[in-house]
Amino acid sequence: MANPGQAPGSAEYLGEPKDSNIHIDLIAYTADSVKALDDVTALEASRASAEPGISWVDVDGIHDADMVKRIGQRFQIHPLSVEDVLNPEGRPKAEYYPNYIYVVLRMVTRDPNDDELDSEQVSLFLGKDFVLTFQEHDGDVFGPVRKRLRDPNTRLRQQGTDFLAYSILDAVVDSYFGVLEDLESQVDALDVLEATELPVDTPVRLHKIKRQLRRLRQALRPLREAVAALARSPDEWIKPATLPYLRDLSDNLAEEVETIDLLRETCQSLLDLYNAGQTQRTNDEMRVLTVIATIFIPLTFITGLYGMNFDNMPELHNQYGYPIALGLMVLTSAGLLGYFRYKRWL
Amino acid sequence: MANPGQAPGSAEYLGEPKDSNIHIDLIAYTADSVKALDDVTALEASRASAEPGISWVDVDGIHDADMVKRIGQRFQIHPLSVEDVLNPEGRPKAEYYPNYIYVVLRMVTRDPNDDELDSEQVSLFLGKDFVLTFQEHDGDVFGPVRKRLRDPNTRLRQQGTDFLAYSILDAVVDSYFGVLEDLESQVDALDVLEATELPVDTPVRLHKIKRQLRRLRQALRPLREAVAALARSPDEWIKPATLPYLRDLSDNLAEEVETIDLLRETCQSLLDLYNAGQTQRTNDEMRVLTVIATIFIPLTFITGLYGMNFDNMPELHNQYGYPIALGLMVLTSAGLLGYFRYKRWL
Amino acid sequence: MANPGQAPGSAEYLGEPKDSNIHIDLIAYTADSVKALDDVTALEASRASAEPGISWVDVDGIHDADMVKRIGQRFQIHPLSVEDVLNPEGRPKAEYYPNYIYVVLRMVTRDPNDDELDSEQVSLFLGKDFVLTFQEHDGDVFGPVRKRLRDPNTRLRQQGTDFLAYSILDAVVDSYFGVLEDLESQVDALDVLEATELPVDTPVRLHKIKRQLRRLRQALRPLREAVAALARSPDEWIKPATLPYLRDLSDNLAEEVETIDLLRETCQSLLDLYNAGQTQRTNDEMRVLTVIATIFIPLTFITGLYGMNFDNMPELHNQYGYPIALGLMVLTSAGLLGYFRYKRWL
Amino acid sequence: MANPGQAPGSAEYLGEPKDSNIHIDLIAYTADSVKALDDVTALEASRASAEPGISWVDVDGIHDADMVKRIGQRFQIHPLSVEDVLNPEGRPKAEYYPNYIYVVLRMVTRDPNDDELDSEQVSLFLGKDFVLTFQEHDGDVFGPVRKRLRDPNTRLRQQGTDFLAYSILDAVVDSYFGVLEDLESQVDALDVLEATELPVDTPVRLHKIKRQLRRLRQALRPLREAVAALARSPDEWIKPATLPYLRDLSDNLAEEVETIDLLRETCQSLLDLYNAGQTQRTNDEMRVLTVIATIFIPLTFITGLYGMNFDNMPELHNQYGYPIALGLMVLTSAGLLGYFRYKRWL
Amino acid sequence: MANPGQAPGSAEYLGEPKDSNIHIDLIAYTADSVKALDDVTALEASRASAEPGISWVDVDGIHDADMVKRIGQRFQIHPLSVEDVLNPEGRPKAEYYPNYIYVVLRMVTRDPNDDELDSEQVSLFLGKDFVLTFQEHDGDVFGPVRKRLRDPNTRLRQQGTDFLAYSILDAVVDSYFGVLEDLESQVDALDVLEATELPVDTPVRLHKIKRQLRRLRQALRPLREAVAALARSPDEWIKPATLPYLRDLSDNLAEEVETIDLLRETCQSLLDLYNAGQTQRTNDEMRVLTVIATIFIPLTFITGLYGMNFDNMPELHNQYGYPIALGLMVLTSAGLLGYFRYKRWL
Lengths: 346, 346, 346, 346, 346
Hints:
The structure is a homopentamer of 346-residue chains. The first copy, chain A, has two domains: 23-276, CorA soluble domain-like (Beta Polymerase, domain 2, 2-Layer Sandwich); 286-342, Magnesium transport protein CorA, transmembrane region (Methane Monooxygenase Hydroxylase, Chain G, domain 1), CATH 1.20.58. Helix content of chain A is 54%, strand content 15%. The two termini of chain A are 62 Å apart. Chain A has ten helices and seven strands. In chain A, strands 2-1-3-7-6-5-4 form a seven-stranded mixed β-sheet, sandwiched between helices. Chain A is of the alpha+beta class. Chains in contact: A-B, A-E, B-C, C-D, D-E. Chains C and D meet through helix 4, helix 6 and helix 8 of C and helix 3, strand 4, helix 7, helix 8 and helix 9 of D.
C-alpha cells in the first residue's frame, strides 16, 4: 500500500522485497507462424510488439520497479497503471485507456502444506497488437494457453489479442474451480456427519474454510463486475465474436460467487448444528450427574443421620432399625426415579 | 467443471462418466399431424428439422460428448453452448444467439430413499422450427407435454416452437412445487409442536431441510431472472401471444422463491425455539438438582458434625440432643425452602 | 398448485374441495340509480354488464371451476387469469390485459379461536364498465363499500369503475391494520415487562407472532408493488383523479410493511432479552448452589475427618478438640465467604 | 388508523380523543412588517392568507375533525390530505398537489420521566403565500423560527414561503440531534466499561435504547427520502436558492440515519460483549466449584472409608493409620491440583 | 451539532471550545516559482489568491467562528458551506457550488496511547486559482504534498488546482491504509491462534476493533461516493487529465471499504470461534467434575452405609465385611467408568 502523501504515479514497488531477477517471456505469433522466446530483455520485448502479428509478453516478477517502469514506457502504459501493477494488493478491475484495456485480477492456488490460499496479482494489458501480463512469481496456470498457441489449428491462433486476453482470463477463472471444489469437499466431509459425530475441531475447521471463502469472494466479486463490463459491448479492442466468450466467463464467475455464498451458508448451518450437538451432549452428561447426585444425596443424608453418635437414638437400638433404614432408602430412590421418569428426564 | 487452461469451446463432458447409450426421441408435428419416433439417430433427428412443421428433439444423456457435438453441429449450435450442455453443473440462464435462444435450467426431484434432492440439468434450444432439449438421464416430467402434443385440439398444437418451449419450462417449474410442498410439510410437522415437544433431532432435520432449500434457491433464482428476461419483450422466436404465459411462469417462480425464503425463516425461527426449549429443559433439571443439593448439603453437614468421635462433645450425651439436631435440620430445610419460594425458584 | 405438466390455462380448481354453491352478488349503479341483486346466475351477472352504468359482480366461492370459467368467458377474461383465479395460493400482483386490469390480493382475518391468521384470495377485474371480484368464501370486509354505494351523495357513486376498484382495495388494506394492531398489542404486552418477568412461554409466543408477521409480509409486499404500479400513471381504466387515492393506498401499504419490519425486529430483541433474563436467572441459581456447596464441602470434609475410627487420633481425646474443630470450620467458611465477597459473587 | 371500508377522504380523527380546544396561531409578514396573532379563529386564519405577504398558520391540535376540515377547505386542501392530517400515525412523506406541497413528518422529544420517546405528527402545507402547519399538541420546537421571523434582518424575512417551510423542517430535524445525542451518551456510558463491569441490567437498557432507535429510524428514513425529493429540482413553490438548504437538510438526515445505524450496531456489539462477560463470570464461578468439589470429593470418600464400623478393619488399629490416611489425602489433593494446573484450569 | 431552530447559515462553531489561535499557512506557486508563508493573516491569505498562479491556503483550527467567516467571505464561500466547516461532526460529501467544489472528509489517525482512533474533519474548497483547506488541529498528513510542491519537476507543479486538491485527498486516503493495516495486524494476531488459545480478553479486543472499523466505515463510505461523483465527468474545475487519478482514488477507497467489511466478518467469525472454545473448555471442565462426582457419590454412600451405628448390622461383624465392601466399591466405580467410556465421555 502507498506511503501517505507519496506522489501519485510515482510507481514504487509496494510488496515484500525479493532478490531474484525479473523474468520476461515472449510469444509472438500470426495465424501462420509462432515464435517463443524465453527470458528476453525489456528492449526485445518492446521490439517484438513492432513486428506484424500478435505479441504476448509475460513478465514474472514485479519487485524491480525500474524494470516494470521501463516496460511500461515502451508499451506506453499510463503511470497510474504502472503504479497499480507495482501494488500487489490491488482490487480486481477493468479500466479503459486510450491505447489499451487494463485488467487486474488475482490468480489463486492452494498451498498444500498449510491449508491456506496463496494468491498472486495478475495485471493484463490488452492492446492493438500485444497482450502484456505481469505476475508476482514464476509459475502460473497459463501452460495450456501456451500449448494451444503452438498449435496452428486452434481458434486462439486465428483470433486477435482479445481472444488471447480472454483465454488468459479463462485460465485464471478455471483455476478458481479447483480451489472451490477442494473447499466444497472439505465442507461436504463435515456435512455428511450426524450432529454428535462432528469432530471437536469443527469450529476451527469452519473458521479456516470461511476465511478462505471470504478471500476468494473478495477476489471474485469485483472480477465478475469487471468481466461483465468487458462483455457488455464490443469495443475498439474487443470484437463482437469474442463477446459470447466473455459473457460465458462472466457466467462462470457468477456461478463461483454463488457457490461461495452457498458454502458460507452451509458453514454457518454446520456451526449451528455443531453447537446444537455440543449442547445436547453436555446436557446428556449433566443429566446423568443430576440424576445420580439427586438420588444419592438424600440417601447419603440418611446414612449420615444414623451415623451420628448421640447417646439417645432409639432407632439405632431397634432390632429392625437397619432393614427399615435400608427400606427407607430404597423407597426414596424409587420415588425420585419415578419422578424423573414422569418428567421424562430418563 | 473445466480443466484450468483448457481450450474454451472444446466441449468435453464434465460430469461423471456413464456407460449407457444416449437416447434420442423425436416428435415432429404440425397443426394437422404428429409423428413420434423413439430412439432415433442424430442424423434422423437433424433431418426431421428440415421437414415442414415443428420438431422436438429430446436427447437423454449428455455423457457421450462426440454425439452431443454432432447433434450441436447439425442444429448449428454455437460451440460455447455445446460446452455448456456438456457441463452438468451450469447455472440457469437464458441466452440469445442469432439462430436460437438457449435456456439452461434444472429439473429437481426428491430421492425417496435418502430424503435428498436429485437435480438434473436440462438444456433447451428454441429455434425457428425446432426445440432441442438435453437431459442427463432417462426419465423426466415432460409426460403430460407429450400427451398434449398428441391431441390436435390443444393450444400447444396450434402454436409455434415458443409455446412448446414454454410448456416444457412450465412442466419443470411445476415440478418444483411438489418438492417445495414436501419440504413445507416437513417444516409444518415441526411447526405445530410446542417448544419442549420438538424432537431431539430437530437441529439435524432443520439442517437437512435448509440444505435442500439452499439448493432449490440456487436453481430457482437465476431461472426466475432468465424467464423474466424472456417474458420482457417479443422477439424473433417468441410471439407476443406467448408473453403472458411466460410472465405467468415468472410469477410462479417468484412465488416459489418467496416460499423458499419463508421456509428458511421458519427454519431459523424453529431452531431458535428448539434452543429455547432445550435451555428451559436443562434449566428445569438443574433447578431440581440445585434445590435438592442446596437443601441436603447443610443437613448432611449437621449429621457429619454429630458423627464426629471427639471424646468431649456434650451435645451427644444430652438426652434431647438427637431430637434437637433433627429439629435443627427441619428448620434449616424449611428456611431454605422458604428462601427458594421467595426467589420463585420453586 | 398446478399438477406438473398440466396444460397451462386449463383452469382447474387447485384449493381444497367444498360442497356449497357459488354465490354471485350484483350491484349495478349509475350516479342516479342503484340496483342490488343477491344470488344471481352467471348469465344475469354478465347481462348486467351490458346495461348502462357500472356493475360490480362479486362471486363468493371459486371451488366450482366450470362456473368460474363460464363467468370468465362472459367477461372475456384471458384463460391464464381464470387459472390464477382458481389457484387460491397465488401471489399478489397487478396485470394489464387489453380489456381489463387484473389484481390479485389477499384478505386477512384473525381466527379468534386459535390465534392464527386466516387469509383468503381476492381476484379483482377492473374493466370499462364492470368490476368483477372473486372470493374463496362467503363473508368479507366490503360491507361499508356496499353501504356507500347505496348513498347517492358519495364520491363512489359519482366516479367510475376505477374508484370502485380502489374502494375495494382500500377496504382490504384497511383490514390489515386491525390484524397488525392486534399483533402489535401482543408484542407490546411482552415489551413492557422486565427481562426476568417475561413468561416462560415467551419464545413460543414470539415464534407464533413472527409466523403471522411473515405471512402478512408475504401478502403485503407484492401487493404494495402492485398498487404502486397502478398508481404510477393514468391509463385507459384509471383516471388521473383516482391516482392520489391509489398513491395514498400505496403509502398505507408501505407503512404496514414498515410496521411489520419494526415488529419483527422487536420480536428478535425481545427474544434476546428473554434469553438474557433466563441466563441471568440460571446464573443466579447456580451461584447459590456454588456458594453453598463450596462452603460446606470443606466443612463436611472436616466432620468426616474426625468421624474416622482410627485408634490413634490424639485430637479426638483432647479436651478442646471439639471446640477447636468447630472453630476451624467457622474460620474456613469465613475465609471462603470473604473470598466470594472479594470476587463479588455475593 | 382507518376503520375498514370507511369512505376514503371521509376525514375522521383517528388518534385518542382529547378535550382541549384547538389553538390556532397566525404570523403574517412581509419583508417590512410582521403581525403575530395568538389563538385566532379558522376564519381569521384563512383571511390572513388573502393579505399581501406570507402567512404562517400553525394549528395546535387535530382532535377536532370538523375544525380541521373547515381549515382544510379554506386553504383548498385535498380531502385525502385532510384525512392524512387527522391520522396521527401517518408515514413521513412529501406529496405534490396542484396548489401546495404537503409534507408529513414527526417531531420527537424525550419524555424525561420514563426514558421514552414522545413523538408527534407535524403536517406542513407549503402554498403560494401561506405555510400551514398542524401539530397534535401545544408546545413545539419552533420558538427560534418565530423569534427570527420578528427580526427584519434575517434571511427568513427576505425569502418566500419555501424558506419558511425549510426553516420549520430544519427545526424539527435539529430536534432529532438532541434526542440522538442523549441516546448516544447512554450507549457510550456502557461502551467505556470493561466486559465484566457491564451492569446486570445491560440487556434491558440496550433493549430500551434499541426500541427508541428503531422508532427514530422509522421516522427519519422516509423523511430523508421526502426531503431528498424536495431538494432534487426547483418547482413552482421551491426556488432554486432554497435548494442548497434543502440538500443540506437531506445531508443532516442522512447523517442522523447513519448515526442510528452505528448506534444499533454498537448496541448489538455491546450485547455480545455483555453475554461474553456473563459467560466468563459464570465459568469462573463454576471453575471454583469444580476445583473445590473435585478435590474434596475423594478426600471425603477417604474419611468415609475409615469412618465405617466394620469389626475387622486392620488399618484402624495400626498405630500410623491416621497419619498415613492424612498423608494419602494430601497426596490425592496435590495430585489433583497438579492435574488442574497442567490443564490450566487454575 | 446545531441548536434546534437556530438560523441556518448562522455559522456558529459547534465543536468543543479551544484557546489557541487559528493558524493560516499559504503556499502560492506557478510552474516556475513557489512562495510559502507561515502564519499569515486572513487578509494576506485572500490577497494571495489574487496573484497569478495557484494558492493553497491551509487553515489550522476552526474554533474561531469569526475568523472562519471572514476567510469564507473573502473567498466567496456560501454561508451554508461556512456553517458546514464549523461543524466538526459533518458527513463526508462533495458539493458543487457556482464558484467552487466543496469536499468534506475526515483525516484519521491512531492515538498510540489509548488504542483509539482520532479523527479530524478536513474541509477542502477547490476554486479556479485556489485550494482552501480547513483542519481542526495543527498537524496533518500533508507534509509530502508540501514537499513535492517545492520541487519544480513534479507533476503537481505543472498541473492546476484540481491536481493539488487530488493530491491532498490522496494523502488523506493513504493515511487510512496505515490505520487499517494496524487493525488488520491486530485481527491477524488473534486469527493465527487455536480456538482454545484465544486470550480471555478476546471479546473486549474484538469489540474495540469493531468499534474502530465502524467509525472508519462511516468516514469512508460516503467519501467513496463523493470521490466517485467527482471522478465521473470533467467539469469547470476538474480537467479530463485528472479524472484517472480520481478514479484511482475511488478504487482505493472501494478497496478500503471492502477490507473493512472483510475484517468485520473476520471479527465475527473469531468471536464465534472464541465462544466455541470457551464452551468446549467449560464442557471439558464440567466433564471432569461430572465423572469424578458421579464415581464417588455412590462410593461415599457405601461408606456412609457402613458408618451407621445400628446395633443390628450383621455385615459389620462379618470377618470379610470390609474387603467385600471395598470390592463392591471397586466394582461400582469400574461399572461407572465402563459406562462413561461406552458413552465416550472419557
